Amino acid sequence: MNFDWLEMPVAELNRTSQRAAEQHQATLTKPPGALGRLETIAIRLAAMQGVVKPELQRIHIVVFAADHGVVAEGVSAFPQAVTTEMVRNFASGGAAISVLARELGAGLRVVNLGTVMDTGMDTGTDIECGIDHDASTITHLHLGPGTANFTSAAAMTAEQLARALNVGRQNAERAFKQGAQLFIGGEMGIGNTTSAAAMACALLNAAPQQLVGPGTGLDSAGIKRKVAVVTRALAFHQEKLDSPLAVLQQLGGFEIAALCGAYIAAAKMGLPLLIDGFITTVAALLAERISPGTAAWFFYSHASAEPGHQHVIAALAGEPLLDFGMRLGEGSGAAVSVPILRLACALHNNMATFAAADVSQKI
Amino acid sequence: MNFDWLEMPVAELNRTSQRAAEQHQATLTKPPGALGRLETIAIRLAAMQGVVKPELQRIHIVVFAADHGVVAEGVSAFPQAVTTEMVRNFASGGAAISVLARELGAGLRVVNLGTVMDTGMDTGTDIECGIDHDASTITHLHLGPGTANFTSAAAMTAEQLARALNVGRQNAERAFKQGAQLFIGGEMGIGNTTSAAAMACALLNAAPQQLVGPGTGLDSAGIKRKVAVVTRALAFHQEKLDSPLAVLQQLGGFEIAALCGAYIAAAKMGLPLLIDGFITTVAALLAERISPGTAAWFFYSHASAEPGHQHVIAALAGEPLLDFGMRLGEGSGAAVSVPILRLACALHNNMATFAAADVSQKI
Question: Is residue B330 among the annotated active site residues?
Fold first, then answer.
């Protein structure tokens, strides 16, 4: 159980590159500021990549999946089998994130940290794993058949927590070594909005009513039940929720811990991160609390329709790029926003300067 | 001076295709509604294209350019020469819209309806014209050396108006014949936010203070001067502003009339339209007022930073997709939103169904 790597320093942005990128932006044939956020995106990526002209050709998407014991409390509109079924769907190319990864030419890996059912496509290994896009197997890490029901037990053991964080770290390191210029974490896990809402309540000291939402589609009676479950869990664990790691162990999910580990490791290496929706933003908040400074490496892709998302993103002072009422997870909102980041780079890198195009400047 | 074509009926959306697309959406492996606006975009495009699975491979962008006599009143932060200089920049590939068109694989044409200066790259012809992407000439229509100063005269003659509308129509028809699946109109014209604001005031019966903004970058004294110019122009033309065509003739610009003609013609043929920012939304409002029903063919790409935009888009009950504080024109905001529409189609067309992927449905 090694948590020491979490303490390593976060990479610093390159302020020289940032200034050079700012100066370059000011020479382009448009009124200053006329491209709005596209300008600041390009400049920020320049500072992250340590170059004047940033690029986003190589994008790695990793979807982490796991089951949740709290599903026994009737907190989801879909049956638990869907976690495993969707893992198969990711691998066979039919899920939203599979379609998006293909369209973007992005790498897609699926990492199953622990589902109740067997996918029937697993290859066994107990170390970091996954599938590459269009591969036909998923490696199962077998951290357990999902987490324990956290209304009456810790969601996971300290060892499971350490391993799940480490799986995330290994996946971020793998992406970095392969030259990824942007990392997207996605998640799949029936019941994981309940886990995310419970953790957000603990981290933000907020009421469950504020942070619990319909997830995949609960009706109002279902949401009421889910609020009661979260309230009960928070009371049960009250005295143990004294650190972000404790919150993650008591109320978390394997896939959320893996996301958290991936974000922390990526920020330490200087790999830019694109955060998806509610679940991943809670993982991002945990990462920032565990390893302060991590958030300097975040882009926030979209405002989720899950009502708790706005509170979590506000706690990170995040400004989402898109607001389409999406609430799917899988990394889908992040993937949809990738072309925006790419076009911001293309404009920054390829527009003519006033001098080169012989265009007059402001009066 | 033939305006009769404006009276032809607008094409109807295909409701059978719409229902089929809705049914198809409901079978995809995700909670119903979880892709938010991406779902409604795909369904709307299906109804427009009369298919179950819409496509946006072939996108045509036409940038209409012209000068404005009202620039003599000191209403722009940039000199009038910039219109011509930017037309050259579009053609030589260095402008924002040139970069975006390349990234999107979209066709780009530049149509100069009348600038004060010669681009030095013109080829002469008095009929519909333009350049295709990466071509090195721009055809100049010579409707005049820009419009007249509309503080003391009609911006254009009835003949100029008819010709400008017709240039837009011809460009939309050309795109349609070439198989365009989406049409984007862009504009360039130093002074055209003054023209657009004046027309929006007339159409919406609004105060200039509400609709006049900084354009390419006026300071507060400049905005004050611009408000006074618009106020004066509205008073001067007061009795003539009794129809949308009259508003366009008295206060408009050649490029805005061409946009308006393109929108009207496209809607009559059933070619979907993606509206850009402030100027194009005013052209879109004119098009809807001249030919009611045209707006059924609009997508609104983004919320411009130009403050008047929100009022004009509200008058059309439009909901912009993006909000990045852009205010460049050229069709740039529309171009940036194209990948969103394309990903909406890809998800709708290529995701697996519950049945095919053997995924359980809602409890």
Answer: yes
pLDDT tens digit sequence for B154-180: 999 999 999 999 999 999 999 999 999
Counting Cα atoms < 13 Å in the Cβ hemisphere of B62 gives 32
Three-state SS at B359: coil
User: Which single residue is written with the structure tokens 């094409």?
Assistant: B11
Angle at A218 between CA A212 and CA A219, to 5 degrees: 105
Coil, helix or strand at residue A55: coil
CATH code that applies to domain A57-342: 3.40.50.10210
Across the beta sheet with A138-140, what order do the strands follow? A122-124, A138-140, A107-114, A59-66, A182-188, A273-275, A298-300
CB-nearest partner of B29 from A95, A339, A343: A95
Residue A72 near chain B (CB below 8 Å)? no
A162, A2 contact by CB (below 8 A): yes
> Is ipTM strictly over 0.90?
yes
Q: Do A94 and B340 touch (CB under 8 A)?
A: no
Task: Give the nearest chain A residue to B76 (CA atoms).
Answer: A363
- Confirm if A260 and A245 have CB atoms less than 8 A apart: no
Q: Does B88 touch chain A (CB under 8 A)?
A: yes
In chain B, which residues have their Cβ closer than 8 Å to the Cβ of A358? Answer: 85, 88
Which residue ranges make up each domain of chain A?
57-342
Residue of B83, B115, B359, B361 for testing the chain A interface, max A β-carbons within 10 Å: B359
